[in-house]
Amino acid sequence: MNKILIIQNKRIGDVLISSVIANNYKKKYPKSEIHLMAYDFTHGVIENNPNIDKIISINEKELKKFGNLFKLILKSRKEKYDVIFDPYSKLQSRLICKFGGAKQTVGHKSRKKIGNLGYYTHPVAILKEKTLVCGKAIEDRIHLLKQVDTFENIDYEPKIFLTEAEKNATVLEKYSDKKVIMLGILGSTPQKSMPYEYVAQIIDFIAQNFNCYLLFNYAPNQKEEADKIYNLCNFKQNIILDIYAPTIRDFAVIMSKCSALVSNEGGTVHIAKALNKPTFTIFSPYIHKEDWSSFEDGKFHKSVHLLDFVPNAMSELSYEMNREIEKNPREMYLKLTPEMIIPELKLFLENNL
User: Rounded distance, CA 256 to CA 167, Å?
Assistant: First the structure.
């Protein structure tokens, strides 16, 4: 029996995407034992996944302490893993690979010219561009999987596995007279959040033109910012305020009852896709759309980026200026106006509501 570890010490969307490694490995080797190591706040997207036998919880701040990292390496050695997959390739995960005692270790080469340094038995270059509709982030992970064996009939789609109780939850029952659109009004970070005045204009457009309820989604620490957006809206009558998802798992359950997601780019988009819900995604200017847009057909899954409308908006900027945009993208975000977005959004909603 093979024993596998997947390390994904990053955010929610990354963890969900990396679960495709577990799904495809378990499909070929049903008796294998697969562990997935992930930050504690991300577990909601992999809970109840029958292809993951054990979730190893880590804390982002605690993992940076050498003593805790050393203990985790020792635990990994005791597990006697046959293969460790390291999709994100951070220093801590690389050290687990190098000293964790696995027979095979697979991870991405550093973009910097520092060599492999013995972290991986199978160092893999990150793809320069996507070649499949699943998007480059998923392609990169399947590329890792294929280093250790041949896999046919790959399933590229991440999945959320709800329990029967979650499937039967009546969380939106009082709003069953109309369809509900989930709105990701804020990104996971300020850099991924569209200007509030633009978000309010988009919400007003939907409220005026589509007879549906609008449900705000935001993280617990974003309540004050969500209120600012709500106060900017002119058409509030169909905005749902009494339902809120305090955890990622709660969000998945509520999202499964909604008709579509309109959102800033982030982990919630990947969750909605894993639940087979239509998604309209607004990308931050500093994010490479080709890396993270997945399964887009322009109808069921659609996204917009500044470069879709102004192809040369960033090409003439220097490296230093691009780095500055990543820190504060508002100036570039303001160029992606509601007037650009709304015609695309209108077609999306007409196709999916």
Answer: 8
